[in-house]
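We modelled the chain as a single entity of 121 amino acids. Its sequence is:
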Amino acid sequence: MGLRRGTKMKKFMLLIRGEGEWDKMSPAQMEETIKKYSAWAKRLREEGRLLDAEPLDRAGRVLVGVDGVITDGPFMETKEMIGGYYIYNAADLEEAVAIGRDCPTLAYGGAIEIRPIADYS
């Protein structure tokens, strides 16, 4: 599913939500899972879609309200944790979702959120 020629591409962010089965995996299973993420990212890169991708550490803080009250976090429950992100190009939200369906997170019980990146230019 390469880039569509002549179509103005839009940026989308795919957020990896929750840990899925990660904590239950053996080191060998974790290594195999990382290979699947790497292969998926490599394919997106070769298609000219992938703009950025990074895993996120569990450490962090959440600032809330006018006073910026700091809470432990960045999550209230592990299932809500954002574990990483991908930023990639797609023609529209439907194509961005189609690309996201191949994200390895889904095969391991995790969830993904796909959001268009607003273009105010």
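As a brief sanity check on the tokenised model: The two ends are 28 Å apart (CA to CA). Helices lie at 27-46, 93-100.
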